[in-house]
TrEMBL record:
Organism: Methylobacterium hispanicum
Residue ranges, annotated region (Disordered): 51-77
Organism superkingdom: Bacteria
Protein name in the entry: MarR family transcriptional regulator
Biased composition (Pro residues): 56-71
Length: 149
């Protein structure tokens, strides 16, 4: 009977130790967060004090101008760029599609039909976009060939 009570007391003491350890961890993390916040506050107060003693340059207001008229995008890539097979398939497919353009899935299908991987298609689309040979409308999620300059 006394052994059972002693075991119960030990379990309770272990549980108390766990709770105390949890609270200590929580207090340490809270203290760390508070230290960081106080440090940030001090730095900001220093900046405010400096700003009060030093003139802060203010940007001059920009005079509004009429927005430029949007021009039809044209192909900006150099004509001497050598394209890979996947890129060539994509450009040809987009030129056949005309102004309707193609979705990314349709382009991937065209490249896959040419016996190449989806990765090749994705890399080619990225390269063509960077070279300025195609345009991607992210809202419509369609790709378009740009006319030569």
């Amino acid at each position: 009977m006394f052994n059972d009570l002693r075991s119960a007391v030990r379990r309770i003491e272990e549980e108390i130790d766990k709770v105390v350890e949890e609270q200590n961890r929580f207090l340490r993390s809270t203290a760390s967060r508070l230290a960081v916040l106080y440090l940030q506050k001090e730095r900001m107060e220093e900046l405010l004090a400096k700003a009060g003693t030093e003139p802060v340059p203010m940007p001059s207001p920009v005079t509004p101008t009429s927005p430029p008229t949007p021009a039809k995008p044209v192909r900006t890539g150099a004509p001497s760029v050598v394209l890979g097979r996947a890129a060539t398939v994509i450009v040809e497919a987009l030129e056949r599609a005309g102004e309707a353009g193609l979705s990314g899935t349709e382009l991937n299908d065209a490249v896959r039909d040419a016996k190449m991987s989806k990765d090749a298609s994705e890399k080619a689309k990225t390269r063509l976009k960077r070279l300025g040979l195609v345009r991607h409308d992210e809202l419509a999620r369609r790709w378009y060939a740009l006319p030569p300059a």
